[in-house]
Amino acid sequence: MANYLAQFQTIKNSCDHVVIAVEDVSDLWPNIKSGFEERVPIKRASLNNKTRNPVLVENFPCEFILTTDSRLRSRFPQEQSLFWFREPYATIVLVTCEDLDEFKTILKPRLKLIVQNDEKEWFIVFVSRAHPSNDNAVKMAKKVYAKLEVDFSSKKRERCCKYDIHGPEANFWDDLESKIMECVRNTLDRRVQFYEDEIRKLTEQRFMPVWNFCNFFILKESLAFMFEMAHLYEDALREYDELELCYLETVNMPGKQRDFGGVDHGDDWAALLNSENKPLTQIVQDDSFREFEFRQYLFAYQSKLLFKLNRPFEVASRGHSFIIGFSKALTLHENMLPFCMREVWVITACLAIINATASPNYDGLVAPDIEKEFYRLKGDLYSLCRVKFMRLAYLIGYGADIERSPVNSALLSMLPWPKPPVWPSVPPDASPEVLEKEKVILQASPLIKHFGIQRKPLPLEPSVLLREANRRRASLSAGNVFEMFDGRPTLIDGSASDASSRTPLSKKMNAISMSRTNSSPGTFDGSVDRPMRLAEIYVAAEHALKHTISDADLWKALSSVEKFEQKYLELTKGAADNYHHSWWKRHGVVLDGEIAAVCFRHGNFDLAAKSYEKVCALYAGEGWQELLADVLPNLAECQKMLNDQAGYLASCVKLLSLDKGLFSTKERQAFQAEVLRLAHSEMKDPVPLDVSSLITFSGNPGPPLELCDGDPGILSVTVWSGFPDDITLDSLNLTLTATFNADEGAKALRSSTATILKPGRNTITLALPPQKPGSYVLGVLTGQIGQLRFRSHSFSKVGPVDSDDFMSYEKPTRPILKVFKPRPLVDLAEAISSALLINETQWVGVIVRPIDYSLKGAVLYIDTGPGLNIEESHVIEMETCVNISQSSAEMTNSNGTQKDCSSASKKEFQQLKLQDGRIEFPAWASDVNSVLWIPVRAISDRLPRGSSSVTSQKQSNLDGMRTIALKLEFGVSHNQIFERTVAVHFTDPFHVSTRVADKCNDGTLLLQVILHSQVKATLTIYDAWLELQDGFIHTGQGTGRPTSSFFPLMISPTSRAGIMFSISLGKVIDKDEVEELQTDSILNIRYGIYGERTNGAHPPVSMDGTEPEDARQDLLFKSAIVLQRPVLDPCLAVGFLPLPSTGLRVGQLITMQWRVERLKGLEDNGISEHNQGEVLYEVSANSENWMLAGRKRGHVTLSTIQGSRIVISVLCVPLVAGYVRPPQLGLPDVDESNISCNPPGPHLVCVMPPALSSSFCIPP
Amino acid sequence: MIVCVAVVGHQNNPLYIQSFTEADDALKLHHIVHCSLDVVDERVNNPKKSGLTLNETFLGLLYPTENYKVYGYLTNTKVKFILVTTDLDVRDADVRNFFRRFHAAYVDAVSNPFHVPGKKITSRTFAERVSNIVKSFGLSSAG
């Protein structure tokens, strides 16, 4: 059956659609052919798939072929059964007949003959040629057709349809199509069944020796092909998948050593998408196929079907795993394949799949995740291709142009060298090439890293190529290679662990290759003893590869370094782009870095920088510092080349802030030097720079700095410098952020002086201007280094910022500064509340009480109010407060830390001088309560007046009040101000009241003068005399002094003393002299005072200060006294007439009556009255007690003759019960001393409560 | 042979990475581990596609490359363990077992009260223990 393989292939190639046979009984086909063929491909068709489920197929292709056609005729029965898939799937019998008899006799038997073959699926198309206008013919045709239907159609199945040649019925074509498809479906089902049965039979024999894979393959592929013809691609694909599985099982069966294939020229060019690459007959081996070709063949068919199914994604995905798997197979057979055949095949295979799936129309066809996966696969394919390509390039000596980056190292250094049976040797005529390669090797200088960074380059080779190649060539001792050759150290470096890491399998392989080498000595022409040099290896590999590679494009890409680089870039970009579209962003970005490396080499710094930035961002973002340290210097170099100072500086700072173990001190110093060089020299404009990772700061541990509102302070901050050397900051600013109010802008503290930061911890102090109340946290640290404006946002708790703490800039929650709300910081209060002596120099005490606040350097401004002078010539005394008065003790502040004055350690005393109204506090007074004694004198030129029982004089305290405005400036910079006006009470030492104690018969009056002490001090009266007013004279010849033996008279504080004067009335001086006469008597008292200034009044302060303390100071006190004229003097007498005896009741109307009587005639009276005989009166009463009716004020006529009298009466209603003062009658026009009153002073009357209202109680 | 093991934090930051090669080429292993995070991310983000149930901590083979294999393991705190091995025929059970022991070692290491979560693991004990686990992995797969 395997012999049919060639035929099978031919048949497959020649027919690719379903055939429908046309049995043209009545020679009608030429007439209707065009109409039929217009209907194909059939728009919609329903078929059954392999599992007998209906599948809708669109545009089902088919071809009408007459049974008389040669294509259907000349077939042998055996062929027919084998290649059954190409036989017609339906037979259409075309008939016409216009006569019933003819039908019965001729047509019917003939038709019966045609349709008797059960194998065929058939139906009859009756073609009616009758013209519609010819009714007869139409009728006849109908009759014949009816007959036909009766004969050939059954209940189960319609097998007839009628085609009107002059105008087919509307549904004819649908009918025809459905009939065709019905036949096709049935045939297909039957044939699928047939093939399946056959395949099952073969599968059952699989493990028998007679089993032949080729037979199985023909059957399986026939079935698959049939499905494909019917557009049932899914089923076809499944058949191929099963075929592949089955093949892999058989090919891996042990015991059968088969040729692998792949040794033909051109085999290196992967044919995994090209099924026509080689005819199957060429790859048949025994009863099966060669693996190399056949697996590609199967994959080609699978991918073809997948493309037809519009599933390029699956092509890529299957392709990727196919390449990986196939590559493994190639490895197993590598010793039989040409040099680097595997690598070349993988490259071409990847490129083939990439190109085949490159159509951009797939977008949006599938779900996004499938699309992403698709891109990922393409990225993988590109990447795989790229690796193999790099490997080839390395073998022919382009290794110096391959970046020794982690990604390349990871890909290449773990990829074993190719293992050809014999390493290619140098062709005989290649010495010029060898020389050239040597030159290239010598010229290539090791790539110098920027900043003088010294790193061992990463390996690109799994083991030293020199050793590997020579070992594979012959049984040379590999150990001597180093000594024998001046191999480049960079290439010899790298993984030397190849031998140790090799799996047992590869060891076995080596052994095999060894033996092969020895068995074929002809390949080495004399050079077998001499190991190859590196250049020779390159040249040899190049020649061998040239032999291997049949893809001209690929070879071109390897022909020169430039072409290599071009292809390398193309592949890298392809991989990166596709990865970027997939989930695998990291892969993409890393490959961007590889592109950047190439750009960098070619001086395309702009592009390189952009890509490097992405790579750096990726590594930095996830904290892969080792990788970042590898690529960041490159970025920095790009930025330097581009003159991107900001970027360059940022990179330098980033380099400095990387883990310290990643760079040596010398390298780190180089970074710092770069920063400083730029900062100080090159830049024209200031460049901002974020150094958050390098300079961090924190507040000092411990409680935050606490300040009172308005106070400046000094803030101490710890700054950590990550620079390896000292660094000078030209200026430094630190912002504070208020925690209570986010809107409030951050306050910046400045330190304009240069600060030198040592590596590690530094403490910086900053002057802190007054801040608003609240708590503050550290904000941003900014500053300047040369032209560099740096800022740092990061805070460190106790140590330098952790190198791997890359994502969390922890916001400090701990406040660094607390500014308290305004509160009293000091209190100024008067030391004493009792009165001081007026008109004398007195000490006024002011208690200064600091409230938890230092008054260091405080200055007090004193400003006295009117009527008060400070004795500026005198010193001001200050002493610690011994005893705090009650009032100030109440003012202890809330935290209760008030110091007890008495417990003050030492009593201090100091004399201060007032200068320009201000005094400066001594240092000792800054924390303790103290008293300031200020010498003042209250001036009052008013003569104090005594009071008598007649003229009760109200005493006004206000007269003696004086104020002192105090203003205290204190705080660190005198920013705190406390103002207080202190009231000081001054008073005369005495208040004098007088009364006539007795009136003797001889006209002598005993005047009692009562002295009330007004001060809290002991007063001593040394002398007292009375200067009498006109009309009074002293009795006897005395000078008005009491007996001198009375004196000195001591008066205790707030007590009283009395002095009697004996006076008598004298004559009244003439009217003319009235103005010059004194109207008041003056009491003179010479006295001394003994008192403490801490209590109240005290002896006046002596101005010169030399007087001894106990010296007596005589002071003089004068007071005016009103002496009442004797009763005879009055010219008018007012008498209050008695009230009714029943008494007064509330609400009861009564008449108040006063009698006014003239005691003297007007002639001898000095009292002037304007209206002769008229007297003005006024009744006054407390309106709360009395309601008055009638005229309260008015004139009454009173005769000027002595003795004339008149009664004034007013109606009153008492309003309040009790003893109340009755309304009083006054005569405003008459001087008080001329009125004699009865009763003489204020008196009270009794008012009864209102009587019970009896009117309601008495019955009518 | 296991060439590299790594612990990667939930923000994809390396917490511990140790290579077991003699050559000075740790950087390439860093790269492999870093790039394998792509696959971990993909698996975690598309659990349906990868057929991975989220209850399963073992992520399986991440990289089907020709020359080395990368296995992943994801703890329920989203900490990833990555294993790079050059053994091409590794039994899944061995790897699972390895990761189980590694996880236990990790849990012990981060339970140290002086360890700051999210910071690199610097414990020498952990390093020794990992090294032992790695060594025993080699033995069991050989045997």
UniProtKB/TrEMBL annotation, chain A:
GO terms for cellular component: cytosol; TRAPPII protein complex. One of its GO terms (biological process) is intra-Golgi vesicle-mediated transport. Residues 1141-1225 form the TRAPPC10/Trs130 C-terminal domain. It holds the Pfam family Foie-gras_1. Residues 585-657 form the Trafficking protein particle complex subunit domain. It is found in: Golgi apparatus. Its main location: Golgi. InterPro entries: TPC11 (IPR021773), TRAPPC10/Trs130 (IPR045126), TRAPPC10/Trs130_C (IPR022233), TRAPPC10/Trs130_N (IPR056913). Residues 16-316 form the TRAPPC10/Trs130 N-terminal domain. Keywords: Golgi apparatus, Transport. This is Uncharacterized protein LOC105129170 isoform X1. It comes from Populus euphratica (Euphrates poplar). The gene is LOC105129170.
From TrEMBL, chain B:
GO terms for biological process: endoplasmic reticulum to Golgi vesicle-mediated transport. Pfam families: Sedlin_N (PF04628). One of its GO terms (cellular component) is Golgi apparatus. Coiled coil: none annotated. It is found in: Endoplasmic reticulum; Golgi apparatus, cis-Golgi network; Golgi apparatus. Gene3D superfamilies: 3.30.450.70. Keywords: Endoplasmic reticulum, ER-Golgi transport, Golgi apparatus, Transport. Belongs to the TRAPP small subunits family. Sedlin subfamily. Part of the multisubunit transport protein particle (TRAPP) complex. This is Trafficking protein particle complex subunit.
